[in-house]
Amino acid sequence: MVQRVVDTILPTGNWSLIVTVSIGLLLVYAINTVLHYVVTYYGHVLGTNIEVDMRQDLYEHIQQQSFSYFDNRETGKLITRLTSDLFEIAEVAHHGPEDIFITIFTLIGAFLLMLSVHVPLAIMTFILVPFIAVALGFFNKRMT
Questions:
Q1: pLDDT at residue 5 tops 80
Q2: E-assigned strands of 20-104?
Q3: How far apart (Å, rounded) are the C-alpha atoms in residues 105 and 7?
Q4: Which of 56, 65, 99, 130 would suit a FRET pair with 122, their CA atoms being 20 to 30 Å apart?
């Protein structure tokens, strides 16, 4: 967007259009900042609430175990494992959907931008995306 402003609007010398477009860009950046704040804040609030609920459920479950269960296992390792695994699950629970959402909209925006530049190349690129996604899933599964 900035490149188009610099390459097409600035050379015209139409200052009212330049100022209008500049204010529009400023508004887009302001809206982007506010939305980024909302996503970050509420994402972490959601993650914290998920973690608290899971932590309560897991501690209740552990407290219901028999004494022989704790005799056969090291309690410190159980608690360490519980807290570290719980943290990882909570991170995926609130960052996962956010990352998927951002990735989908980034792909859509990039595709639309590519369509405006060169249609055949954009379509060829878009045809390759599902194959790349399948390959990434396959190799990711094999590596883990």
A1: no
A2: none
A3: 26
A4: 99
Local confidence band at 31 (pLDDT 50, 70, 90 cut-offs)? very high
DSSP 10: G
CA geometry: angle at 91 spanning 86 and 93, to 5°?
Answer: 90
**43 close to 98: Cβ distance less than 8 angstroms:** yes
Q: Cα separation of 50 and 58, whole Å?
A: 12
Residue 58 neighbours by CB under 8 Å, 6+ apart: 82, 86
Lowest mean pLDDT among 3-12, 98-107, 108-117, 131-140: 3-12
Q: Which amino acid is at 84?
A: S
Give the type of residue at 50. Answer: I
- CA gap 54, 87 in Å, rounded: 10
The whole-angstrom separation of Cα 134 and Cα 17 is: 46
